[in-house]
Amino acid sequence: MRNTIKNKKQAWWKVGCTAVAATGAAITLISIAVHLHLGNETKINKVDADKVQDVDVEGDNNKVGDTYNTYIENNYYLTDDDPSVPQETDTSEESSSVGFETETYVRLAGAADRTWRKSVEAKVGDQVEFRILYTNTSDKSQTGVAIKDILPSDLKYVAGSSVIKNSNHPNGAKIVQDALVDNGIRIGNYSKDANAYIYFTAEIVDENLSVGTNSLENWGQAGVGEITIQDFAEVIVVKE
Length: 240
What we know:
- With 240 residues, the protein is mainly beta.
- Helix content is 3%, strand content 46%.
- It has a single domain, classed as Sandwich (Immunoglobulin-like).
């Protein structure tokens, strides 16, 4: 049985690491705040500021090839049209310690139930949709916010499926690059209480599935200043 979750509760840890010099936006990552399973460490590949891409978008009155200006300020709190099942742990203390928070949710693509959840059951060949939420919980603006996603081997990113939704793109705008699951994307500057949603689709494949119940954990990451944090949603696949 591979990667089966034994404890859904999470803890925060801060880990020192070598500084990476940021180019363009100020995202020099020196330390990492990490969500971990209690008693089961999950390693993090931090957002590398030298490799994060500024995004091009289309939609919301943008044309293909328009660069998403990372210096445009996002000013108000945006809500998603679809409901979410609350996370199982209180993140208020965690988010206040670093000044921002991130949440990752999942749902079956095309299902009648559009509720975002922390866990769904699916089978090989199904597609699932993920949503990564970043929120500025500090009293100051945060510049050059970066988002990255780390998919397990049995979840394959669907090319061209990434969408950003924030105060500058309230109806959603397609992200031209497929860099979210590679080195990550830079999504702009965010004032107090501002937020952004990143959506994308993945397909369940069988590369390393074990016979029995498999828990595929997908980790969404947000990077601001010297900090990267992450949160996961799981897809449960039973292989007979």
